[in-house]
Amino acid sequence: MDAPIRPYLEGVLAENLDLYWPHIRGWIHEALVTNANAHTAADIYREIRDRKMQLWAIWARNDRPTGVLITEVYETAAGRTCAIPIVGAEMMEQSLPVLKIIEKWAREQGCVRLRGEGRAGWERALKPLGWRKITTQVEKRL
Fold first, then answer.
1. How far apart are CA 117 and CA 133, in angstroms?
2. Would you say 111 and 141 are in contact if contact means Cβ atoms under 8 Å apart?
3. What is the pLDDT of residues 40-84, one digit of tens each?
4. Is the Cβ–Cβ distance between 67 and 36 less than 8 Å?
5. 9: enclosing H helix or E strand
6. What DSSP line would sit under 39-102, residue for residue?
7. How many CA atoms lie within 13 A of 127 on its CB side?
8. Which residues, 6 or more positions from 66, have their beta carbon under 8 angstroms from its beta carbon?
9. Distance separating alpha carbons of residues 33 and 123, to the nearest angstrom
10. What is the band of 1 on the pLDDT scale with cuts at 50, 70, 90?
């Protein structure tokens, strides 16, 4: 096992998706199930392949990715937005610094905001990085 390295983020080209998919599919599936997302891992695969979403591999080891981050850029009435609908990693807290790379990339895409959705723990983890809570989502299973 390789020693931990400082986490960094690698943008994965859609044509290289199949090389990474076996390593990151589990994190995507877990994030979708945990957040009761309407998408499946297969849906996310297609969106990345069709270049509607972007795949980012988090590396904190030398031998394989240690996490994944998915982005989606879209227009809103308030300006271009970069959403981060999926994040999964072995060492989540240690991986948060890679968000600075996403911020820079989103600005380069003309985005005026980043958006994310997830469990309450995300609010606490991201607050020191300048994120703020803007909504609460609730659900009742039937």
1. 10
2. no
3. 899 999 999 999 999 999 887 777 888 899 999 999 998 999 999
4. no
5. strand 8-12
6. --HHHHHHHHHTTSSEEEEEESSSSS--EEEEEEEE--TT--EEEEEEEEESSHHHHGGGHHHH
7. 7
8. 7, 58, 59, 60, 89, 90, 91, 95
9. 19
10. low
